[in-house]
Specification:
The protein is mostly helical. It has two domains: about 120 residues; about 70 residues. It is built from eleven helices and two strands; from the N terminus they run H-H-H-H-H-E-E-H-H-H-H-H-H. The chain has a two-stranded antiparallel ribbon. Strand 1 and strand 2 form a beta hairpin. The chain is globular and about 55 Å long.
């Protein structure tokens, strides 16, 4: 249980002038999860915040933590945000999970790292509403330029199971389909059916 003063304090930090503070506040609220639902509107307001999160450079923005927080609290505004990221040039989330990084000793530091795009999509969308954008991004990633992303998106398809199988079967009939097959080790019976 989160003490009653913590969430209002974090919510107030979503309006802080420093992008790094806004990012960390949203990141922590995402970690808190459902208890942060009363602050969903404030988190949704961050989805347009393109300021770079200072500890991550230009590759991660405040909006990324806002989107993750929305998905963690189950707010439906997170789904179209994830769809636009899957269709765009920058997902805002890493291809692999790192959770967080730290250093100990005299120069101790904590770096909040977002979960992978596959983990975020899988957790946010058990009903596979993002199936089409995931398939489109997987097709692009399977061309050999993003093999790690292709593998992680196949894990998302595997988590969706039978809901994803029809789209996958249609996908492998395309010219790049043979490249996708090598990422399907975790897809189970649906992958075997698709391969046949």
């Amino acid at each position: 249980m989160v003490p009653g003063t913590v969430l209002p304090f974090l919510a107030a930090q979503l309006r802080a002038p420093e992008p790094g503070v806004r990012f960390r506040a949203a990141y922590l609220m995402a970690g808190i999860g459902q208890d942060a639902r009363p602050f969903a509107d404030a988190l949704a307001g961050l989805t347009a915040d393109t300021a770079a999160a200072t500890s991550h450079g230009a590759r991660t923005t405040v909006s990324d933590a806002g989107v993750w927080a929305l998905t963690r609290i189950g707010d439906p505004r997170g789904i179209p945000e994830l769809a636009s990221r899957l269709k765009g040039d920058r997902t805002g989330f890493p291809a692999v999970n790192t959770s967080f990084q730290w250093r100990v000793g005299r120069n101790a530091a904590f770096t909040a790292s977002l979960p992978s795009i596959g983990a975020v999509v899988t957790d946010a969308d058990p009903g596979a509403r993002l199936l089409d954008p995931v398939i489109e991004r997987l097709r692009a990633a399977a061309d050999g330029t993003e093999p790690v992303l292709a593998a992680i998106l196949c894990q998302t398809l595997g988590a969706w199971g039978p809901q994803a199988a029809p789209a996958l079967i249609g996908m492998i009939r395309l010219p790049e389909g043979n490249r996708v097959l090598r990422y399907l080790a975790d897809f189970g019976a649906e992958a075997a059916e698709a391969e046949e």
